[in-house]
Design brief:
alpha/beta, Aspartate Aminotransferase, domain 2, 2 domains, seven-stranded mixed sheet, four-stranded antiparallel sheet, 14 helices, 11 strands, 40% helix, binds pyridoxal-5'-phosphate
């Protein structure tokens, strides 16, 4: 039975599976020296601009930590929201690999705003405090909200005014782009983002994410960090082939628009029950809801989902590329 636990509980999209099978013939050079990787990198260059450089990795944690590794020294700090995946769900991976310090800012909706950051972007008491080097945001955010373009631009401006970089954790970048109705270049390159972790797994890939450097030079030692960070795939053609299929014929957009639409449908259905409260704006492919215990238990039997904040009885219900109206109806009928 399909549930609402996470968009990475869904399987591989058939077109991605087809691309994997097609890539599975003959020999190709290893470690990214294959023709698939070269072509996929070219596709990313066309999307994000001639100045950009893209590297493929296995997973989102690897993409984030390696991107931030490339932007920091051991004496630096990275500013993020209290909900940031890199802060709460990556097991101290950033601290282990980079020695950089994370500064987590309270955020009710997962977003960071320049006004909340102005006391954090400058190091005081040189040389005693960690030196801020990066602001990292997630698009869409962990609680499912989406930054508007002007909000990203304002953070990029703040970062650059203080000599910091802006990194975007785009594990769900496609859902954000579909939600805003914009292309990736408009949302990322043109707003001044420096480095992006581009998600594939949550949008139909079997596995695979990309790190996109938007400004030349920032990628200088990335290949070495990727190898040290154990994310250099020897059979990289299989990540590249999946990305080519995802970016071909707007499959990324179809998948993301579908999961976003299913979240809207789920929200509309849940709002029909007066014991249920929607606790975050539904702007991408997840619904955050406050559920009484009895209802939550019953619903979880008909499509599993996780608690988000148990103290508030708040739950997260995620839709994916393969969520159907029937899946939602089954869940709703159980209420
Ligand atoms: C916002 C965000 N960033 C990064 C990741 C990392 O993905 P992975 O599990 O592939 O390491 C996730 C996964 O849940 C996520 O939700």
């Amino acid at each position: 039975m399909k549930g609402f636990a996470s968009d990475n509980w869904a399987g591989t999209h058939p077109k991605i599976m087809e691309a994997l099978i097609q890539a599975n013939s003959g020999h190709e050079p290893a470690y990214g020296n294959d023709s698939y990787t070269t072509r996929a990198q070219e596709v990313f260059r066309k999307i994000f601009g001639e100045q950009s450089t893209t590297y493929f990795v296995y997973n989102g944690t690897g993409a984030n930590i390696l991107a931030l590794d490339a932007l920091t020294n051991s004496f630096n700090s990275v500013i993020c929201s209290e909900h940031a995946h890199v802060h709460v769900d990556e097991c101290g991976g950033l601290e282990k690999h980079t020695s950089a310090k994370l500064i987590a800012i309270p955020s009710a909706n997962g977003k960071l705003y320049p006004g909340d950051l102005k006391n954090f972007v400058k190091a005081a008491r040189y040389p005693h405090q960690s030196v801020p080097a990066v602001i990292t945001i997630s698009q869409s955010t962990e609680p499912g909200t989406v930054y508007q373009l002007h909000e990203i631009e304002a953070l990029a401006t703040l970062a650059h005014e203080h000599g910091l970089y802006l990194h975007v954790d785009g594990a769900r970048i496609a859902n954000a782009a579909a939600s805003l109705g914009v292309d990736f270049k408009t949302m990322i390159t043109d707003t001044g983002v420096d480095v992006l972790s581009f998600g594939g797994t949550k949008n139909g890939l079997m596995f695979g994410e990309a790190v996109v450097f938007l400004k030349p030079g920032l990628e200088k030692h990335f290949e070495l960090y990727r190898k040290q960070g154990m994310q250099l795939a020897s059979k990289m053609r299989f990540i590249a082939a999946q990305f080519m299929a995802l970016l071909d014929d707007d499959l990324w957009l179809k998948n993301a628009a579908h999961s976003n639409k299913m979240a809207q449908k789920l929200k509309d259905e849940l709002l029909k029950f007066n014991r249920i409260e929607i606790s975050q704006p539904v702007e991408s492919n997840g619904v955050w809801a406050i559920l009484p215990d009895d209802l939550a238990r019953k619903m979880q039997e008909n499509g599993f989902f996780y608690p988000w904040d148990e103290s508030k009885k708040e739950y997260r219900l995620m839709c994916s590329w393969d969520t159907t109206v029937e899946d939602i109806e089954r869940l709703v009928q159980s209420i």
